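Hey team,

Filing this mostly as a record. A colleague (T.K.) asked me to run one chain through the structure pipeline before their review meeting, and I want the input and output archived in the tracker in case anyone asks later how it was produced. No errors, nothing strange. Just documentation.

Input sequence:
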Amino acid sequence: MIKKIVFVLLYPFAVLYNLITSIRNLLFDLKLFKSFEPDVFSVGVGNLTVGGTGKTPVTDFLISFLAENKVGVISRGYGRSTRGFIELKEASAAAEVGDEPKMLFDRHRNSTKFFVSESRVGGYLKAVSQYPETNLFIFDDVYQHRHFKPQLMILLNDYNRPFYKDSLLPAGRLRESRSGAKRANIILVTKCPKFSENSEKRQIIDEIRKYASETASIYFSHFISGDPVNMNGHKLALKQKIVLISGIAQNDQFYRDVAQKYEIIHHYAYADHYQYTRDDLEKIPNEHPAFAVVTTEKDFVKIRDIAPPTFLDKLYFVPLSLKIDKEEDFKSEVLTSFMNHNKIKRAF
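Output structure:
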């Protein structure tokens, strides 16, 4: 009942928000507002909603299978303490460049260049001027950045909170209307359970098709949580009593996933992109001195920078990977788009 009352109160603001975003999108569609189209093939990853839909694991997946190319990744660096264009280096702290870019850098530093920039156009121009050999860029969280137009746009849709059942801000979680899905070349449904039959998939596809382009491909995926490991690569034995700490968009889901393998005696849950302090990390071993501490990989890169050695000895993170149904078809579609762009580029 309370939710319905809040929705009714916020609905007029959602109508106004819809008017503003729709006019903006129309001006881009009519080319009255200009979009920059990069010469170097670029893949955009984004969503229609606020909150986590899995952009970072998807970006990680793209980096991994495209690593034979000269890849650059540009993110906003949400939650960082700095501004402007920064290239990530070995000494870059998560607080300076953002937790998600730093996590991806730690995984792929030997094969990929990473940058953060509020301006996607400005970030691209600076990155390509510094590394002209780059032949492929991946842009994280770029769907509403209409001033920049990647050659391939991947829209993520959370299975648990699909955009086609959501409402516009502030009544719901949509950044723009559902019709914005028509700009996507690929729509990837994330966080899926393991489907026992295809009937539910067909139902989801039918709902998405109401808003997406007829030519857009639709894929399904789920995340695989690995066993917790520490910074030395040692795994945490199963069924232990542990302390959990996380600052992500879906702390409850993280709790449920870890609780399948461990007995959680306490969960320190913070807001997404929370900036930990030394006091936070001193409190945990004081209150629970006998137990290992498990966190997300995204939180780990921030905690590692400020944690005392005694805390790091007890700290483990859960590695997360992405599994896509019809994975080879997905990869083939991305690579075909990449090759077709390069053919056209050479023709001119």
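Quick notes for T.K.: Residues 2-29 form the longest helix (28 residues). Residues 63 and 117 are 19 Å apart (CA to CA).
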